[in-house]
Structures are given as structure tokens and as C-alpha cells.
Amino acid sequence: MRISRISRILWTVLNGAARPLAVGSLAILGGCGLQQDIDVELPAYPAQLVVECYLDPGKVPQLTVTETTEYLASPNPSLPQQVQVVLSGPAGWRDTLQFAPAFDPVTKKGYTHRGHAALQAQPGDVFTLDVTDALGRHLTGTATMPARVPIDTVEWKFNDRPEDQREAYVLVRFQDPATAGDYYRFQIHRDSISDDPEVDYTPDDRLNNGQEFTLGTSYEFEAGDTLITTLYHLDKAYADFMQSVDDARGANGNPFAQPAGIRSTVQGGLGVFTVLSYERRTIIIK
Amino acid sequence: MGIICLAAGPVAAQQRTNTLSGRVLGEAGILPGATVAVPALSTGATADEKGTYTLSLPAGRYQVVVSFIGYQTITREVNLRASQRLDFRLTPGGTELGEVVVEASGTLEQKQKSTQMSVERLTAAEAKLLPALFGEVDILKTLQLKPGVQNGGEGTSGLFVRGGSADQNLVLVDDAVVYNPNHLFGLFSVFNSDAVQSVDLYKGGFPAQFGGRLSSVVDVKLREGNNQKLGVTGGLGLISSRLTVEGPLKKGKGAFLVSGRRTYFDIFTRQINKLNEGDPDFNPIPDYYFYDFNAKANYTLSEKDRVYLSGYYGQDKFGFNSSGGFNFNFNWGNAVASARWNHVFSPRLYANTSASFTHYKYEIANKLDQFSFNLSSTIRDYTLKTDFEYTPNERHTVRFGAMGTQHRFGVGRLKAGSTDGRLNFGDDVGYNGQEGGLYFTDNFRASDRWQLEGGLRLTGFRSGSDAYAGLEPRAAARYTLSPKLTLKANYALMYQYLHLVTNSGASLPTDIWYPSRLSVKPQRSQQASAGASFLFAGGQWLLTNEVYYKWATNQVDFRDGAQLFVNPDLDAEFLFGKGFAYGDEIYLEKKTGRTTGWIGYTLSWTKRRFPAQRGTAGINNGELFYPTYDRRHNLTVVGLHKLSQRVSLTGSFTYSSGNPTTLPLARFLFQDVYGAEDSAVPVYPSRNGYRLAPYHRLDLGLVWKMKPTRWFTESDLTFSVYNAYSRRNPYFVFFDQVKNEDESQVIGYRARQVSLFPIIPSATYNFKF
């Protein structure tokens, strides 16, 4: 459990507790407007390159290169100009990605650059990323494909409610490798991989290294649901990046949180460059 | 607070002196700060925090005048042929009827002439006169109105003293440490004003008997109870009620006091939940309440022996049970107990020996359908302590003593499981620690003009195979330029062997304590301060100016994304840096007359630097930064005016520079892997680079003492208006999305400021029978 999560819970708690205080004593003061828009003058922050690249073995590499914008600027993403992206891999493999902005209907993600051929990758393979732009900014990254961690079982169990109200939970088991420092991301999508996941955990083996993991859900699935379970095995850099993104988003609007910087997996900018290693199973709840 | 010698007339060195000592008692126990004067010799003493006074006098017959604000002054003739012990008992009345009293730490003249500087004393009786948030009198919040003391945010009771963080305060209640002195995330302190006698806050110049924290000592004394008659006091407030029972164990020999309070907003929230049952748009309000109990008993075994038992137990309880099968329970609280034996060896030597226990625990218990998750942390101390005070002659007052503590740090215990046993894992991380201290100090009146105090404290700490020791010199001096003007200076070095593990600027119940071990070395600070006190207008006004400089090493913070919970390698998550604080505190106070009060102004700077280390760039890229409690300007004005015998008007105004805070300077678009929703990720390149708008607030109060009735010997109605002009003070600022009309698209971003409390009127009814 990370502090950001606990502090977020506490903030929810405090909100919950503060509300009755306000109601109890201050109902007469309704409409006081305890939130208000204000003008803030933020110091200038030079825009930095931002990359998001998840190499997916067997698929054509694609990635997004954007840049940071001032927080209160227009919501449209800012795209750097004349960006050159080069990917390198084992045995001298090299691909200069094309600038071909598009929308991937499967991932439902936009991308700015796309490779020429499907990626061949095995666990342990090392890849590098090199990004430059017209302003002379230079972003680099290195990623190693983690070993696949197989899912041993996926099972479900219904509760004891009447037939038309029955809901099931899902349990997924897998064996954590003997070495310490394994990080995971576990997702369950309903019907389509392209939609928001129903479940999204990021456990690690800090407390149960080398043991069997059991990840479960609440009673939330119905008979007939098609569920796609995915277990990603992450390297530490990617897990740290995910956590820092989570912390940074959580700190905005949480007076109890200590805002923290983004721990990127790349140098010379912000973002993530990683090779996905996952096991995916599809089940139909019956 | 030791014995404070008043301006003494010349005493022939060869003349044999005797000691007159004892205690000054009021209706409800000891009276710290009471004055025992011998006008014929122009000498006198102030009763210390245990109500004890000591005078060195030549043999002879004297008129001894004993006084305390709010009590009738008595004069007794004493024929002093040999050293003797004599207790004085004062009865209520006297000046209280004619004056409103702000502060009872003796007279301004006594304060001016003391070597001790950088100390604030406040009694609960005084705090009760001032307006309070929701009418809940909180003695720690009242201390925030003193110069050099900053609060941690709107409405919170945390104290940030001279650039120190909240965990650098040693909070004691009757000699026992309180690790988390807060209820409800710091909105209230654990100290029930009905049970508290007084609090002394040491901001610097720490006497050698105190150690273990860098920045302040908050020494809370509970009331002793009325040893003459049984009485009940209580109060009905907007959000809580209090009840206190006190009385003699044996008339004149001993007394007890039991006090409790409980909040009741859970009663209202349950009703609101019930009324909204079935409304799909209504989110049930979680249950929250806190309660606490204080108890104290004292008994005089003999003329030379007296014993005291004190205890505190309090719990905050938070619960949320959703119909969806999610249960969340979060409980935290302190249990504190102490036993003290006061023994008078002779009129020149007495000792206090105490044994104390303190325990703090929080526990989070989640249950989601068949899965459960429990997280808890504790700290538990057993402490033995003895303090001696010896007055060999009228020039020296010597104190020495020793203490030892056995700590148990339950840094984290995690247990997760499922009802069917398919899931079951957990961990438990804990350490032991032993802490000890020896000290010696001498208060030496070198001449009529010079008074010096020097002391040394030797401390040590061990946890496992890691051991540390430190020598802590303490020094203070007072020079009397004229009867109206004194100059003072002091120096103190402090070590702190315990560290609060927190990644938040706020005081959270989940903050845990960690011992010095492995790479986590003891924190260390030094502080030097100097000042002048000027008494004028016939002793009615005292103007004090103190400047201070404090520098500290091994200050702790945590790396970004630190795993603070149940981490057996927690020491690797610490970052270490330096802290600096300096400032000037100006304090003008008036304590007598129909109108009393004070004005305090502090100009201060607090900075920290955490350089690159442990594979990180440090904090703020290794550059100096201001912690959230840095305030450039702080002004407080407190006034009380007695309109009539029964009606008093009170008011306080406070102004502070805005808190430094961290705002994101930029953002980037984050799409994530399959399916996850796009989001804007804030970028925080620096720490606390933005200052919120200044904070200012006016509180007003009215105390209406009602006539005694058949049922109540005393009762009053206290009205408070918190934030009288409803200033929207910033609590925090965040950035929010602006969406189009159907909320389908983000069309911009805006900065929003959240305020916590608008104007809050409240009324409290207090009674006594």
C-alpha cells in the first residue's frame, strides 16, 4: 500500500468527516463558496520531450512523442517538430520509425510514430530508444524485456444470493520467481481489451517473494461475462514510473500528499520506454 | 520551570540561612506560578510546575505574602529558626472579580527577572476565555497565538516552533510522552481543557531536564482535583460534551479527578444517512467520533511524601460500511499513564521519581467481500525518571537527574487474507530501542545583576547493534541593566533519536515513529537566542524582543515514492539534510486591569537543504527550499475586556504570510497501455515554490457568567465567532479541468483554492456544581 493511496483514502475520510461538521454547524451558511477560482502565476518551465513507448513483441512498434505544456495552457497536446525516433535491438536490429500520427482502434490510443515491421523479442533482450527533435532535445532510453510469469489458474466463484442477483469474484494465481524485486500489473477487462479495465492492480513481491500470488476481486461479475485477464511482469523502472504517475496525479487536490517528481525510465525528458511481457487469458463466467 | 529568585536584597555571606519551602495550593490542587514573597527582605519565589517554592532566608520572624491571580492573597507570619516546610492554601476570589486574566505565569516582573527565556505558559482557565473553533477550547491552538509558534494549517493544533517540524516537539502530559497529540487529523488536540491545569511551551533555552526532541517541549500538567469537596463540572458544545468529576480521596490529604468527553457528529451523520437511504445519488457519510478520558489522583502519605497517578486514554474511530460489501474501519489513539512520587529529603533537597507508560496505535481494517486487509503500527514506551532539586544556599539551585526508556517500535504490521483461506499473507516489522539520559544544571545568582544557568545533559540511544551518544550543553544568562530592563541569552544543543515517518505536511494518524538505526543517524540541532525585556507603565506592560538562530543536521525526509508502510528496509527510504531557522519575536503583553492581552509579531525564515544522495537528486534538486510551515510574517493580537462582573469580551486577530506549497508547473498527456483512460499528469519540478495567499482571521468571543442557582454553583455561556469576517483563507490550491457543457470534453484548466472554515458561530454552556 502506498502512501498516496492511504493519504487519498484519508482525504476521502476527512471530506466525509468535514461534511457533517459543516452540515451540523453551518447549514445556515449554505452557499458560502469554500472553493473559488484564483489566478496563479507560475514560473516558466521549459517544455520537455515526453515519450510513451510500450514495445509489444509480435506487433509493429508504435509510440507517442509529445512535450510538456504549462499546466494552465490549452488542453491540446503539444507536438514537437521534426522528431526522429530510432529503435535498436539485439543482433544489430534497428528501425527508424516514421512520423505517422494515427489512432489505433485496438488500443484506442493515439500515436505519432510507427515502425516498419513486427517486433521480435525474447525475455532478456535489450532495446534502446533515441529521440531527437528540431530544438536539439535528445531523449534516450534502454529497456530489457522481463521474463514472462505464467498465470497458473483463473477461477471464479459465485456468492449465495438468488440466481438473478448472483455475482462472482475472480481469483488468479501465479508463482512469483525466487529472485526478489518482481513487479506486476494485473488487469481484468470486460468484453474488450480496448475499454477501461474493471480491475487494475500493481502488486509487487516485497512482502511475499518467491511465493504463490493470489489476486482476487470482489463479487462484481455476472454469469455470461467475458473477462480478459492480463498479468504484466514489469521491470522496476517501469513500476517506479507507474507509481510516480499515480502519485503525481493523486497529489493534485490532496492536501495530505507530498507532490513528487515523475521517475521516468528515459533520460533527457519524461516518459516511459519499456518492453511488455504479459500473459493473457480469456474466460467466460458461467 | 524552576524556582525563580526575585530581586534580593544584600545578604551577608556569613549569615546563616534557613530554607522555607513547601507548596502553594488552591481549591483544586497546586498553583504553579503562585508568588511567595517576603516584603521585608525584598525577596520571594515563584512556585514551580509542581506548586513547590523554596526560599533561603536568614533566621528571623517574617510576614510572608502568598498570592496568585484569581485567588485571595494571604499574609502569614513565619518565625524561621531552622529550615522548615510550610504549605499555603489559597481560596478563590481576589483579583478574578475585578480583572480578566490572560496569563498566569506569575507577574510580568517575575517573567522579566527570570533567566529562563523562550517559554510560554498558559493555563486552561485562560484558554477558556478566548474564542475557539466550534467552541472547542484547545490549549495547543491557543499556544499558536504566541510569537514563534506557527500552525500547520487552517484549524489544526500542530505546533511548528521556531522552524522545527511537528515531530520535533516533546509533548508531555504529567511527565509521560504523548506521541500523537491530535484528534481528527489535527483539528483538535487530545487535551481536554477541563482536565488540564496548565501548559508550558519551551521554544528555546531548554532546561537540562528535558531532551529527546529538537524544537520544543510542550509540558502539560493535569489538574489535581479538589481535595476539599466533591464537585462536577461539564460543558455542552456544538460538537462535543465534557464531564469532569473531582473530589477528595481523604479530605485535605488527597484528591481525584476523572474527566471525559466525546464528540457526537456521528449521531447527526447517521440520521442524515438514514434520511437519504435509497437515494442512489447519495453517498453515505462515514461514521466518525472521538472520545478521551483523563484521570488523576494524588495523595499525601506524609509531610515528606506525596504520590500522584495520572492517566489518559483516547480513541478516534472512523467507520464506513457500504452496501456493496466494502467495510473500512480506521481507529487510532493514545494510552498514557504515569505514577510519580514526590519526596522531600530536607527543605533544601527534594526529588520527583516517576514511572510512565505510553502507547500509540493506529489500525486500518478493510474488508471487501471475502477479502480482508489489516494494517497497523504502534509505538510503546516504558520510562523511569528521577529528578532532584537541591538548594545549597540562596545563590545556587542545583538540579540533577536521570531517565531511561524502553521503546518498542511496531513500525508496521500487515495482514491480508480471505475468509476461505485461499489468500493469507502478512508481515510484521518492529524494533526495540533503549534511550537514557543524565543531567546536571546549576542556576547561579552571581550578583544582583547577573544570573547564570549552566547545564549538561548526556544522552544515549541503542537499537539492536547500533548505539549513539550525545553531550548536550545548555546555558542561559540574565543581566539586569536596570529594574525595568533585563538582557538575556541562551544556548542549547539537542539530540533526537526518534524520527517520524511521514510523507505529508499534515499530521496524519498513520505517521509512524522509527528509531535511529543503520543509516538513520540521530537528528541534532543547536539554538542560540538573545533578547531583552522592558517593563514599563508601572509594571503593567512587558515588552520582550528575542532573536534566535537555529541550525540542525541529519534532518529527515523521504525519497519520492518511498515505501513507508511495512518496509523492513525502511532506513533506505530516508533522505538526510540540514535545516536553518532564524527570526525575531516581539511580544508586548499586559496582564492586569480591565483590559488585558498581548500583541506578538514574528519575522522568521526557515529553510532546508537535502543534497543529491542515494541515487536521487535530493529534494528540490539539492537547492534550499522553504518547508510548508515557513512564514515570513506572523502577527497576533489578543485582547480581553471585562465589561462587567459577569460579562467579558474577547477577541483575537492573526495574520500570517502564506504557506509555501508545491504546485505543478507543467503537465503531459499520459495514455497508458490498453484500455486505460488518458490523463493529464502534473509535473512538479520544485518543492514548495509557490506561496498561498496570506492567512488572516478575526475571532470574537463573549463569556457570560450566570448567577449561581440552586443546582449550579457556577455556570457560563460562552459564545464564539470563528473567522468573524468569513475570510476565505487558503487551505490548498489544486488544478482542475474545465469541461464543455455536456462534460464530454476538456476545454481548459483552472486553479481552484479550497478554504476550510467560513464564519462559524458557536455556543458552549459550562457548568459546575
Description:
Chain A has helices at 3-26, 236-251, and strands at residues 35-38, 49-55, 62-67, 69-70, 84-88, 94-104, 109-114, 126-132, 138-144, 151-158, 168-175, 183-190, 199-201, 212-216, 226-234, 266-267, 270-275, 278-284. Chain A is mainly β. In chain A, the strands form three sheets. Chain A has a nine-stranded mixed beta sheet, with no helix packed on it. With 769 residues, chain B is mainly beta. In chain B, a hairpin with a 2-residue loop joins strand 1 (17-26) and strand 2. The relative contact order of chain B is 0.11. Chains A and B meet through helix 1, strand 1, strand 2, strand 3 and strand 4 of A and helix 4, strand 24, strand 28, strand 41 and strand 42 of B.
Short account of what is shown:
The complex is a heterodimer of chains A (286) and B (769). Chain A is mainly beta.
Largest interface, Cβ cutoff 8 Å: A-B, 99 and 97 residues
User: Could you give me the name of the CATH homologous superfamily of the largest domain in chain B?
Assistant: TonB-dependent receptor, beta-barrel domain
Segments of chain B where pLDDT lies below 50 for 5+ residues? 1-15, 94-105
Number of discrete helical segments of chain B: 4
Report the major sheet of chain B. 22 strands, antiparallel, barrel
Overall SS class of chain A: mainly beta
Gyration radius of chain B, to the nearest Å? 27 Å
User: Structural class of chain B, please?
Assistant: mainly beta
CATH architecture of the domain at 49-145 in chain A: Sandwich
Number of helices of chain A: 2
Terminal CA distance of chain A = 33 Å
CATH class of the largest domain in chain B: Mainly Beta
InterPro entries (chain A): DUF4249
Pfam families (chain A): DUF4249 (PF14054)
Protein name (chain A): DUF4249 domain-containing protein
